[in-house]
Amino acid sequence: MARTSDLIFPQPVFVPKIWGGRRLDTEFGYDLPAGPVGECWAISAHPHGDCVIDGGAYDGRRLSELWAEEPQLFGGASGDRFPLLIKILDVDDYLSVQVHPDDAYATEHEGGSLGKSECWYVLEADDDARIMIGQHAKDRDEFKGMVEKRRWDELLNEITINAGDFFNIVPGTVHAVRGALILEVQQSSDVTYRVYDFERLQDDGTSRELHLAQALDVIDFKAETITTGAITVPEVDGVTHLMDCRYFGVDRVRATAGSSVALALDKPFACVSVCAGAGTVSVSGDAPRDLRKGNHFIAPAGCTELSFTGEMMLIVSYPA
Ligand code: ZN
User: Is the separation of the CB atoms in 79 and 71 below 8 Å?
Assistant: First the structure.
């Protein structure tokens, strides 16, 4: 009989992208399809990549099925679909300059999809790594004019990034990145409006579709410009609370050798990603289970506390 405190391990889904690389293999040891791979959908019930559960009482079932048929695992979480999507991005070349809609716009224009609030934790950054986040046009007309004249350098707010940076990317924020491995927590949505794709061609000689009209609809021209991703909130007993929004919260957990880190869980469930190192996790006094970089799991409703040992960095996210 499955208990609602048994951890659930989804199998990642991998997505080839023209801007991707091979670091999901070389850094994380995943068994990848050939060619550049940009995204690991580590915990997802989205129809474009619905993870199959690996082992345990729910072995072989899809996460979307668990959400629909085993609500006790997600104690009290509301909504018609699993709300979160956890990815690792390997961004070798520039991600397209893009923007995402909020719930209201996506519901109306994208067939009932959720909007896409997302956040990025930078796991590794190349020496020349850059993020574009936000833009300098004051309104729709100015933005459109600068796009037509290809004045990208003046239009886009570009800053350097370092490992350990964190960015909260709210809907309406123009963004792109290159030269980084990123852990992403987002709403379960796959709606992206591409503004610019660096004149790149795909293998078949065509370019990827742009969506300037929709982008102009959703860009927030009043947003404040972000100038750094440095984390300023303090770490308390190994836990750093990175953000809260109306959809999710995100913590970073760092375990160091010789002591354990306890993480109290008071949400319907949590998604946990091991981003570096190795160690163990135990739930409420159960036998510890080995973990290593690249493991991802869901701590279902019966987990009130997770205890970590070893040397690990984990990102923990949960519905708001
Ligand atoms: Zn995005």
Answer: no
Give me the catalytic one of 23, 178, 194, 252: 194
Number of other CB atoms surrounding residue 136 within 10 Å: 14
Confidence of residue 256 (pLDDT cuts 50, 70, 90): very high
254 Cα–ligand 1 center, Å = 26
pTM beyond 0.70: the answer is yes
Amino acid, single-letter form, for residue 138: K
The CA 116 to ligand 1 mean position distance, Å, reads 8
Q: What is the CATH T-level fold of the domain 13-218, as seen in this structure?
A: Jelly Rolls (2.60.120)
Predicted local distance difference test score (pLDDT) of residue 259:
85
**Strand ranges for the chain from DSSP E:** 13-21, 37-43, 45-46, 49-50, 84-91, 97-99, 118-135, 156-160, 166-169, 175-187, 193-196, 239-244, 248-255, 261-264, 270-283, 289-292, 296-299, 305-319
Catalytic-residue membership of 194: yes
Sequence-separated (6 or more) residues with CB below 8 Å from residue 46: 81, 85, 188, 189, 190
Task: Report CA(38)–ligand 1 centroid distance (Å).
Answer: 13
Q: Would you kindly state where each structural domain of the chain is located, as residue ranges?
A: 13-218, 239-319
Are domains 13-218 and 239-319 of this chain identical in fold? yes
Query: What is the 245 CA–ligand 1 centroid distance (Å)?
Result: 16
Mean pLDDT rounded to a whole number for the chain: 95
Residue 101 CA, ligand 1 centroid: distance in Å: 10
- Structure-block tokens of residue 185: 């927590």
User: What is the fold of 239-319?
Assistant: Jelly Rolls (2.60.120)
Instruction: State the pLDDT at residue 77.
Output: 80
Cα(177) to ligand 1 centroid in Å equals 9
Where are the strands (E) in 26-103, listed by range?
Answer: 37-43, 45-46, 49-50, 84-91, 97-99
Q: Is the pLDDT of residue 1 over 80?
A: no
Distance (Å, whole) CA 31 – CA 12: 10
Both tokens assigned to 200? 């790149």
